[in-house]
Here is the input.
Amino acid sequence: MLQSGMDESPTNVSDMAKYGKEFVTTTLELRPSCGVGRMLVEKLSPVAPDGQAKFKVLNTIAEEHNIKWDSKSFEEKKTKPVNDLVDLTKELLEMFTATKMAKVFFTNSGSETNDTQYALLAPFVVHSIYSFLTKDENERDLTNFLIFPFILSRMLHNQIWISLSRYKTAKGDNRIVDKPIEFEQVDRERNWDDQILLLGLLLYWANLTVKGVSNLPMWRTDGIIITIFMHAGPVEIIYYWLHTALHHHYLYSRYHSHHHSSVVTEPITAVIHPFAEIIMYYMIFSIPWVTTMLTGTASIISLFGYVAYFDFMNNLGHCNFEIVPKKLFTIFPPLKYMMYTPSFHSLHHTKYQTNLALYFPFYDYMYGTLDISTNTLYETSLEREGESPNVVHLTHLTTAESIYHLRLRFASLASKPQSTSPWYMRLLWHVTSWSMMVVTWFYRRTFVVERNIYKTLNFTNMGYSEIHHTLRFTKAKRALIEEAIVQAERKGAEVLTLGLLNQGEEINRKAELFMRRNLQLKLKLVDGSSLTAAVVRNSIPEGTTHVAIKGNLSKVSSSVAIALCRRGIQVSTSCENVYTRLKQKYDYEIQDNLILSDSCSQKIWLVGDDLGKTEQMNASKGTLC
Here is the structure.
């Protein structure tokens, strides 16, 4: 008979000879990284029975031995403390859900008046500037003075990423997730700047109250090295396990699902979290700061640079287009363990349970949570080219301020009518005008504004920065419109629609000029006048026999007039020029239904531009225009 013991088992002896004692011991004892699947270990591991199973066994034993005991009261007595603790824990967690904490932190965040929250910074900014200007050079606190410029730089940094991401995803090159962004996501992420404001307030508070946060040197090498190692170690590890816990169904449904509501990520998605979750992140991310301050190695560069690193990596991971070149990983292969890519984190937002690391994929490799399609998605995203649009709409700016309302610029402004622009936009009028002139002068070309998908229809909006209407700029605008038409044709578009100011008589003779100069065009050039004319024509009451054209002749009024003449309705105009133009173009169609008359007795008027007030007063009572 064989003696017990691992070392004396024939099987174990042969395994040791083949694999080594350490491997056999690790495998048999199911130590970490033993090579045995985690699920297999969990299924085969002994699990203590729960309370109900224990009470069931006790009841069975009592019945077999005819023992009478009150099992219900005993069960309630044993489980009550545990249940109370669970209820207390749930109650505390419920206090920090997104809905309730929204009332605690920035109650007007995301509303129409959320600009007023920046007034919270005003006392600190004024105090900082005043102290810096009035104190002697030796007493000035450069750290305190640089907090406000740092806040502004963070906003600029994030806005650049937002505009770049929206431009790249609209073009389609290197796009990762091919889905449109829902309106709910736009509204949910409008308060992305709250976290910048919160950190600014915390920095001012710490600078004024915490020892070691004021009068920091500009640079300390040892402090920067400590910051790097503290992030790569404790911060990444603690975040990984916190993130894993947040994906548990209880915490996920109450907290982290708010962030994961955005499947198609944008740079600002990175900072959209419930308030309690933000506080937990701040506690983790402050570890390098606290360490350098306790060791006396903190510096302005390590303090602000660490936040800038977070902003860069957050924006990079959520931008939804692959931008990290493959050459970086070829030159330095270990970089793939120390830096994630946009496609890496995008998989986390689409598959949820994989790629849980903060910025270092090393921890996903180590704990086995790396998605198997990470490398494939990275390579395909790098090689991806934008799809050909089915429909292209060429839009235009109306004023210099309207550039801020483009989707590429500020979401908070783009989601509102231009007439409701905040007061500070008026103060920036001169800056806007001069910047527009510079942009127009150096970047006079068309660009993609946004892209939408309606079922199988790929719809692309294009625009250009031209807003001037002088003869010189009209010629430039004409060239830009023609360039957009040729570009849409080259991309395989089937239809191109023109915005209202892109179809003027003075620019392209209502698109006729482009059609004549590009006879080989396969796409359909649409200006919307046919649809508008149909709406106007169908809105004319039944039984109408006489209609008047007043003001300058537009393409819509011309189309309506021709359609009415074909139906046998008389159309009169008091302008000889309008009468002549219509006769020359459509004489065979309008026959005798177009007449030249100064009468104003008609009850239906088709009104064009530049209709004088005197002529308007001649309309009889009840006239429809």
